[in-house]
Amino acid sequence: MKPILLTWPDLALASLLLLADGGLSIWLQLGLHRRLGVAAARMVAQLIAVGLVLRVVFAVANPAITLAWVLTMVALAAREVAARPEQRLGRWGNLSVGASAVAFATFLTAILALTTAIRPHPWYDPRYAVPLSGMILGNVLNAASLALDALLAGASAGRAAIEAQLCLGASFRQAMRPYVRDAVRRALLPIVNTMSAAGVVTLPGIMTGQILAGMDPLEAAKYQILLIFLLAGGSGLAAVSVSLLAAHRLTDSRQRLRLDRLTARRG
Amino acid sequence: MTHSSGVNGGHLDPPRLALAGLRGALAGPFDLTLARGECVAISGPSGAGKSLLLRMIADLDPNQGEVALDGRPRASFSAPDWRRHVLYCPAESGWWAQGVAAHVPPARRHAWAALAERLGLDPALLDGPVARLSTGERQRLALSRALLADPAVLLADEPTGPLDPENTARVEALLAERLAAGMALLLVTHDTAQATRLSARRLRLEAGRFVAP
Known about the structure:
The structure holds two protein chains of two kinds. Chain A is mainly alpha-helical. Chain A has nine helices and two strands.
């Protein structure tokens, strides 16, 4: 089955709906029409640009260019992970923890999927590698930033409790265990919710896209199930690695709690 | 009591605790020795570095200098081992579980209840949540939890701060008993009478240094 290709006039016609939104904003004095317009223009420009670049990346199918593209996405995601928490680890700690965890979780999950389940030829074919890495990254980013925020906030609020255990002869790892567990738990809740709601409350994006592209619904569902498994795995890996790396940054060779390495955002 | 060997004050014994040039970013250098069974009481204005000194000895804050327990250098202990032997009991006690009982291993539960009772606490408190304890109850439970570990040196930061005279006397009696058994006690207190009652050597700390009392 061939997908039904859209023409530019099709899009122009659909954009009338956006104009209707703008009219609504003016009529109800929502003050949103300018922002609606700017956001819509950005969305169109960004997506067309990505589409054009990906067209080239897919056509060239050069492993180095594919890797560079994925690494750029990883770097942007790492920056996002580092920026979200209220607390910051000194000496670029958030960024290096975020980048290591995001890269580790994304590459491991994506390579696993490309070499075992999806198996394109070659396995690093950008048509599969790029969108797959992007999807995994989105979830890994969420899990990693939730875990990092929870761990750093937990450790700084739990100082008395952590040090009380250290004083009685507990190892740093023992004293931090509840905070690491809590951070991983919080990072995994969104994917649990996604899985419970999938198909009942929402028809997931990939499945919708595959169906629109002409795929059999059951085949589309199978694809979606595989992807959600990947997202769950990637989230778990990211949550655990970000929590352990951040906890490691909060201690030293004498198993102290080094909150002096943390600063709150904006003073 | 594992630390009662009865060779108190022998010339050849290394001191129980010895500090030489102990310093951190904000306090020191400190030189101090404590013999077995000796109590040293430290006083000084708030912010002088009293708690910082105790934290450095327990190796909770980065520090330089030599610290030794019974002649054995601190560096030869793992950090958890060192802290178990040279135990810091802060002014504000820390609790990491909801239930009181979860703060000691189940096997030590009875011993803890017995110590708590000696400090005037109802052993039934151990069955309740930490949130229901008063400040004074937390303080005494934290102290008894620390003594349960049978430390060689206790670093006690205002252990009787929030307590009434009757309970202060109970705490002092227990500390005196441990001192007699060989434990060394480094005590931060504002109460000069307490220092006298525990026959403590008195030191005064100002602006991060010991000064003449």
